[in-house]
Amino acid sequence: MADLLNIGVNGLLAYQRSLSTVSHNISNVNTEGYRRQRVELSTQTPQYTGSGFEGAGVKVAAVTSVYNQFVETQVTNNTSLFNEQDTLLRFSSDLDNLLADPDVGVSPVLQTFFKSLQDLSTDPGSTPVRQVVLSEAEALTSIFNDTYTRLNTQQSGVNAEISSAVNDINSLSKSIADINKNILLTSGGNTNFPPNDLIDQRQTLINELAELVSLNTVTQDDGSVNVFIGKGQSLVVGTSSQQLTTATNEFDITQLEVGISVGSGSVNISNQITGGKLGGALLFRNDVLDKAYNQLGRVALTLSEDINAQHQLGYDLSNTLGGNFFTDLTSTIATQNSNNATATNHVYTATVSDSNLIQASNYRLDYGTGNVYSLTRLSDNSVIGSSTNLTTLSTAVSTSEGFTLALTSGSSIAVGDSFLVSPTKNAARDIDMALTNTSQLATASPLLASRSTSNTGDANFTKDGLISSTGTLPTSPITFTFSSGTNTFVASPAAATTPAGATIAYNPATDSGTEYQVVLAGVGTYQFTVTGTPANGDAISVDVNSNGSGDNRNILAMINLQEQKGVANGSANYQEAYSELVSEIGVKTKRAEFSANANQVLFDRAVSSQLEISGVNLDEEAADLIRFQQSYQAVARIITTADELFQTLLGAVSR
Amino acid sequence: MRISTSQFQIESVRRMLDQEARLSDIQQKISTGRRILTPSEDPAGAARILDLKQVIDVNEQYQRNADVVEARLQAQDVTLTSFVDVYQRVRELAVQGLNDPLGQENRDAIAAEIRQQLSELMSLSSRKDGSGEYLFSGYQGNTNPVVDAGSGTFTYAGDQGQRKIAIGPNRSIEDSDNGYDLFFNIANTTENAFSAVYNLASDLESNTQTGASLTELDAVMENLSNFRSKTGVRLNSIEVQNGVNEGVVLQSKQLLSDIEDLDLAEAITELNLRRTGLEAAQQSYVRIQGLNLFNFL
After folding, report:
1. CA nearest B160 in A: which residue?
2. φ, ψ for residue A314, nearest 5 deg
3. pLDDT beyond 90 at A96
4. Which of A91, A121, A143, A613 is the mutation pick for testing B, counting most B CBs within 10 A?
5. A622 vs B133, B164, B297: nearest CB
6. In chain B, positions 78-137, which contact chain A (CB-CB < 8 Å)?
7. For the whole model, what pTM was predicted?
8. For the residues of A311-364, what is the DSSP string, one character each?
9. Higher pLDDT, A51 or A34
């Protein structure tokens, strides 16, 4: 009977625990990260009696959370992947939206600028039309500036994302370390009764951490979990956590980088970070934003260089050669790396030599072992050239990349130093008007050919103009006189051309419409087309084109730049180069969207299977509640029965 | 399959949100009428839109340029026609003046009218265009092209520049001719359009007129007719080029519309489909979510 009571009491305790676990499950049906718990019942150790083993009732063998470690790891990993792509998508679509409307942005303003030049070509002398050209050019520089500012806003957004992610990572890793500590203190080594709720909380924190950055976890024998990020950088080890830091980029103070404290300093681990919001923000910066800066800058740079070059070959209303139309963007100071040796004081200047060759990339100039300079293009990490002689390197670079490098100041440099060169990055920020006055617009061509009044033939020089200029103009006319005996035009005075007394072979029967070039001494190269049939002795003289307010030849040359494929080594015109930026951002956003959607599906599926296994189902719990209640009632009957047996026995004795 | 209670909730809500997002997307497309809301939806299409807009813009600009050139050439044509008309009258007077039986008085009267016509010619040569620049002074739009230096000497003060204006890709056209070629550089005579007339008047006044004057007048008129027909040819080619430009603009606009504009019928159908989907998701959620064993305990 004592055994009967024992069995009853054991049963009551076991079902009480079962009922309380069911209640715990029901109460936590909406708790995030809660994994349903199950009481595992088993038989008590049986007693050996004379009549063999006698059962001793039920006991609670363990209270466990129901989960599958593989599924849990999948949830963690997919959380990182999904958040990375989602963050990339969020930033990219911002940029995508910025470039979205075809009616605003650089494209329409670029077209309006060239339209205003077209209008000017029909009426070059008109001050109001000239004013329109200046205003449209001003609008063009502003839209480049504005777009650059918007990219900067994105850059700040990335920086904000990085610093908030780093803060959150630090507080989460500290919390995880704290929970590790609590788990060690409370579990007391009994593996049958693990602190399930603490473990759930820790898993929730790990998943929150995974939203920020990709991680690996290793569960130790004592129940604590170690967390690693990047290439095995430990974030949580047992009960202690490692702090991440943020610091500005060694080359560019506008960029934040992620570091990890090592000793007294910190090491940049940005390029090791993947996954999560942090990985997504860094991915966006490296993959999309940096390129956008350079592509936008390249359009601004090439446009301003081309327009400037042509404008300088023109002649303005006050009878002087044209100056810069836009501010000169050719010179870029190479930035010094803050990690360079303290004695280093070298400052380099990169100067654009051929804007058509300029690529939308940054470069790194390294000074390495054996005092060798080498230049690496960062967009594809290819080494452009290396030499112990900077001038030799510069020559090689200028033929392939379109800029030169020169030491501006400084006398000492140390092996291991590096410098960042960004020929295009800031062009959209720096582009500005150089012209201020409508009369400075060089619409005309500086030289004009006139036929002598004594000519009897009808030969003429047309489509003429300077194609290169030294900045000075001839002081007296240069006359080209035709000799029918030799079919040549001969220049005089002889000293006015290089070589002296240049001759132009012109056969009227076959050469009409042919283009010629003559180098005018001290002036530049004069290009012209000869038409018609000259008589012997006919003369055409080339002189400075004064008061040519109606001359539109230089404007026509500037208009031709619009359709000219002068960007990216002759592959695109300005519009196409800008379209390329728009479509590239579009493609990248689309890819991010696709990837984010795919990862969303994987993430949702992982969460679903996690919930399938570990989530609370109220119907199931209700059924359990009934089941355990009935069992409890039944076990209570054992105690009543034992009592009745006892009473029966007492009754029998007392008679 | 086991389903947990929160999983059911989460997934139902997610499905509804999905439907709502699609509904909002199609609604936005319908309200803007644009098939592509952001370049990422169709990167190639978005770039093509920008490029096509440039093609349209450039060609419409060519049309504008052509309008300016056309107006100038018409002004030149009208002026040259008047010039030739005046010359015709001068020639009639010359024929009259060369008639032997005339007395000096009559010749003087004819000479006076010829001088009258000469000043008309001078006035025609200094015609200005719509923006106040001289039509016939080459590039020097602010210089009156013909200078009367007195005693029958007329000089050309402009230059030999001739402005070209783009009216199509690789197609530009001269918007006027300079006074040098029109009035001074005349084949088969050493006179210019003004001195020929002046000398005729002087000859009549001094009774030294000869038939050579007529030859000179004819040479000037032939030169002017040449330029009038050149002007006509240019006006014609503007018409032709206008047709080409309009064709390009029309074609590009059609292409642009194909890429840029939403097919409304298709979009409305999709909108209805999405709406039905959302309604179904909402209704089924409301029906199922209340089911629970606890209701029966």
Report:
1. A450
2. -100, 180
3. no
4. A121
5. B297
6. 131, 133, 137
7. 0.84
8. HTTSB-TTSSB---SBPP--EEEPEEPTTS-TT---EEEEEES-TTT--S--EE
9. A34
Q: Rounded distance, CA A442 to CA A553, Å?
A: 10
A71: which 2 tokens?
Answer: 């599924």
Neighbouring C-alpha atoms within 13 Å toward the C-beta of B135: 25
Instruction: Say what the pLDDT of residue A583 is.
Output: 87
Q: What percent of chain B has pLDDT over 70?
A: 100
The model's confidence at residue A261, banded by pLDDT at 50, 70 and 90, is confident
Taken as a whole, chain A contains a residue count of: 655
How high is the pLDDT of residue A277?
95
Given CB atoms, is B185 within the 8 Å cutoff of chain A?
A: yes
Mean pLDDT of A332-341: 76
Domain ranges for chain B, please list them.
Answer: 5-52+254-296, 75-241
DSSP string of B61-94, one letter each residue: HHHHHHHHHHHHHHHHHHHHHHHHHHHHHHHHHH
CA angle A466, A468, A469 (to 5 degrees): 90
Residues of chain B neighbouring A582 (CB-CB closer than 8 A): 39, 43, 46-47, 50
Mean pLDDT of A432-447: 93
Q: Is A73 left (phi over 0), alpha (psi -120 to 50) or beta?
A: alpha
Q: Cβ-count burial of B92 within 10 angstroms (0-12 exposed, 13-18 middle, 19+ buried)?
A: exposed
The predicted pLDDT at position A13 comes to 93
| Dist CA B257 CA A196 (whole Å) | 62
Please give the CATH superfamily to which domain B75-241 belongs: f41 fragment of flagellin, N-terminal domain (1.20.1330.10)
Q: Cα(A649)–Cα(A200) distance, rounded to whole angstroms?
A: 52
**Closest by Cβ to B5, choosing from A589, A608, A615:** A615
Nearest to B68 among A122, A548, A563 (CB): A122
Count of other CB atoms within 10 angstroms of residue B88: 13
Residue A64, C-beta contacts closer than 8 angstroms, at least 6 positions apart:
A37, A38, A40, A194, A196
Asked if the ipTM is above 0.95, the reply is: no
- Chain B residue numbers with beta carbons less than 8 Å from the beta carbon of A613 are 2
Q: Do B58 and A114 make contact, defined as CB atoms within 8 angstroms?
A: yes
Using the beta-carbon criterion (under 8 Å), do B143 and A92 form an inter-chain contact? no
pLDDT of chain B along its 297 residues, tens only? 788 888 888 888 888 998 899 899 999 999 988 888 888 888 888 888 888 888 898 899 999 999 999 999 999 999 999 999 999 999 999 998 887 777 888 899 999 999 999 999 999 999 988 778 899 999 998 899 999 988 889 999 999 998 999 998 888 899 889 999 999 998 888 889 999 999 999 999 998 888 888 899 999 999 999 999 999 999 999 999 999 999 999 999 999 999 989 999 999 999 999 999 899 888 888 888 777 888 887
Place of tokens 């400037």: A308
Q: Which residues of A touch B172 (CB under 8 A)?
A: 556
Residue A154 at interface with chain B, using a CB cutoff of 8 Å: no
Which helix (H) or strand (E) segment holds residue A469: the answer is strand A460-469
Q: What sign does the CA torsion over B143, B149, B154, B159 have?
A: negative
| Chain B residue with minimum CA distance to A619 | B293
Q: Which helix (H) or strand (E) holds A403?
A: strand A403-409
User: Is B170's Cβ below 8 Å from some Cβ in A?
Assistant: no
B43-98 vs B104-125: helix crossing angle, rounded to 10: 170
Does B265 lie at the interface with A, CB-CB under 8 angstroms?
no
Which pair of structure tokens corresponds to residue A12? Answer: 């009551």
Nearest-angstrom CA–CA distance, A589 and A597: 12
- Report the candidate in A282, A246, A276 with the shortest Cα–Cα distance to residue A261: A246
* Residue B22 burial (C-beta neighbours within 10 Å; 0-12, 13-18, 19+): middle
